[in-house]
Design a protein that fits this description.
Blueprint: E1 2-11, E2 14-24, E3 29-33, H1 40-47, E4 55-60, E5 63-64, H2 70-75, E6 78-81, H3 93-99, H4 107-120, H5 122-125, H6 137-149, E7 155-159, H7 167-182, E8 186-190, H8 194-200, E9 203-208, E10 211-217, H9 218-222, H10 225-230
Parallel strand pairs: 3-8, 3-9, 6-7, 7-8
Antiparallel strand pairs: 1-2, 1-4, 4-5, 9-10
Helix pairs in contact: 3-6
Length: 236
């Protein structure tokens, strides 16, 4: 479904990504792990067209998309749910959700998808007329994911969905992420909680200093001694 081939990205004179290649198969959850500054968010921004690459290819459904603009990539049904949630604080919950479907033409289906999002996130249904800025951190994360789902993604890019949230809310969010995947949406997940990310993923890549240092099936990486010590907080 998605292939990154030998991606290079610079921020000025700094190499943010160096020869990064990865793949997301249709119907899978792939985790992208690494320490702060490793290049995880840059990878997602490169896929969604927010950051331009120096060289390499981004291939989605057998089409090169690396030169497309972000709005064109959204129309390909690659939807980016950014770090920090970035909801529109002055707009209502309902308007935030509706904005997620702005590129869609299938107006008849949008109402059905809205109803489905509200089934996934019943808290949002109770707060439809509230402004996004009045929601708790967990509710704003639900709103950000719900808004992304209104774009009807084939591939959902999730950047740090657990950041700053309480453990109970994190568990709830990740159950919903699993359900979204079971319904057929492929997911590329950037997540600081490596143990939790590996527990729901099929495959994972670990970035170090802008390069892929390690990759493999999530279960295998979870049992890898180096991964356990560096990312899961467990000494071998």
């Amino acid at each position: 479904m998605l292939k990154l081939q030998n991606i290079y990205v610079n921020y000025g004179s700094i190499e943010a990504l160096r020869d990064v290649s990865l793949e997301v198969s249709k119907g899978s959850i792939v985790a992208l792990l690494g320490s702060n500054g490793a290049g995880k968010s840059t990878t997602l921004k490169t896929i969604s067209g927010l950051t331009k690459l120096i060289s390499g290819k981004v291939i989605f459904d057998n089409e090169n998309i690396q030169n497309l603009k972000p709005n064109q990539i959204v129309k390909k049904q690659i939807i980016h749910c950014p770090e920090g949630r970035q909801v529109f604080s002055q707009l209502t919950v309902l308007d935030n959700l509706r904005l997620g479907s702005y590129c869609r033409k299938d107006r008849g289906q949008i109402k059905k998808d809205l109803d489905h999002v509200l089934e996934l996130f019943p808290r949002l249904k109770e707060r439809l007329t509230q402004s996004g800025g009045t929601l708790s951190g967990g509710e704003q994360q639900m709103l950000a994911i719900g808004r992304a789902l209104m774009g009807k993604p084939k591939l959902l890019l999730l950047d740090e969905p657990s950041l700053g949230l309480a453990p109970l809310i994190i568990d709830e969010i990740f159950k919903i992420i699993k359900n979204i995947n079971k319904e057929g949406t492929s997911i590329l997940l950037v997540e600081q909680n490596a143990n939790l990310a590996l527990s729901i993923s099929d495959y994972a890549y670990i970035l170090e200093n802008g390069k892929v240092a390690l990759s493999g099936k999530a279960k295998e990486l979870k049992n890898n001694e180096k991964v356990s010590e560096l990312y899961l907080g467990v000494k071998a």
